Amino acid sequence: MATGEDNGPLEFFKALHGAFVATIRARRAAPTLVRELSAQAFDSFDGNVSIQAEGMPALACHEGCAACCTLRVVASAPEALLVAQYIIATRPAYAKLGVDLARRIADEDAVTRGLDEKRRMALRRRCPFIENGSCLVYNVRPLACRGHASYDKRACFDAATGRGVDAKVSEPHLVVRSLVQNALLSALRDAGLAWRLYELNRAIAIALSDPDAEKAWLSGADPFLEAAIAEVNAQDMAATFDAIKAS
Questions:
Q1: pLDDT tens track for 23-65
Q2: Does the residue 156 lie in any domain?
């Protein structure tokens, strides 16, 4: 992502949007599209956030810290489908450890379905993927998780538990996450694919319960519509995407 230029973020968005569009066009019929789009998004985030965060304070985040993992997580359809694929692929291995991720998701979804951010946090419920402080789906975690990084572990914990609201988070992580995520959503929209942001647990639960969910999504349907985040206005987002691309 360009720095020192007023149009740096916009040019980055447009370039990444074009890259996502090219991937969809080239790989739409491939069974690996979900994995390839997600990998492209994650690689773009990782590579650019390391540049943008250069010279910033060291992050307090580390393996075994799950202080922020009571927050509601939102994700695009490819990200939710990727996690569902991972759960299915790792089911035998986790079963040997007595862990049933699909059951955990179903149980959590039954409690948190439809809750907004404030009501979700009030429950103080830990993400169903957390085990002994570690994320069991860390390698395929969505951009929302990758883009939330704290400089102060204590403040982060206090904010997540309702004892404080001034947790210092990394602005570069938030900005790069937003640019990558929105470029992906814009490309999905241009391709005629469902492109909203969804509550992660509900979307994964849908994908796990409906073996045709991915096929439906690839056909242009939206099997995750009931998981769409109500606070995000799709028309406003679409108008913003069009304005950026026209600039």
A1: 999 999 999 999 999 999 999 999 998 888 777 666 655 666 6
A2: yes
Is 144 within 8 Å of 174 (Cβ atoms)? no
pTM (predicted TM-score): 0.90
Percent of the chain residues past pLDDT 70, beyond the cut: 85
Could you tell me if residue 2 is inside a domain? no
Number of compact structural domains in the chain: 1
Using one digit for the tens of pLDDT, what is the confidence trace for 161-192? 655 556 677 888 889 999 999 999 999 999 99
- The C-alpha atoms of residue 179 and residue 11 are separated, in whole angstroms, by 10
**Is 3 within a domain?**
no
User: CA of 57: how far to CAs of 62, 126, 151, in Å?
Assistant: 14, 27, 7
Q: What is the dihedral of CA 212, 42, 105, 153, to 10 degrees?
A: -170
Range of the domain at 84: 8-246
